[in-house]
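Cross-check.
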Amino acid sequence: MTPILQYSNNPLFHRYTHLIYLHRKSKKKKFGLLIDYTDNLIVEHVIPESLSDHAGIIPHDIIISIDKIPIHDITKDQAIQHIQAKNHVLLTIHRYN
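Predicted model, tokenized:
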């Protein structure tokens, strides 16, 4: 499935919002994201040729919601469990210019 990317320029923060849909056929296949969690879920590394790489996710992208659930409403562990437990996930990310 082709990733869904929707761009929305936010002039107040000079960043772009992306909706990215990731789908895998099996939980054995990894999405390919390494995430740091401080105040936000920040993509530290994207594994080359992974689903995330093909979807256009890049290091320093900030995940602001997972399946339309704001990350500030859940813990780091809940966020990671939510991503790992599913075969498909809709990520909303912010990307600074």
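The CA atoms of residues 60 and 92 lie 13 Å apart. The first strand starts at residue 8 and ends at 10. Passed to J.P. for a second look.
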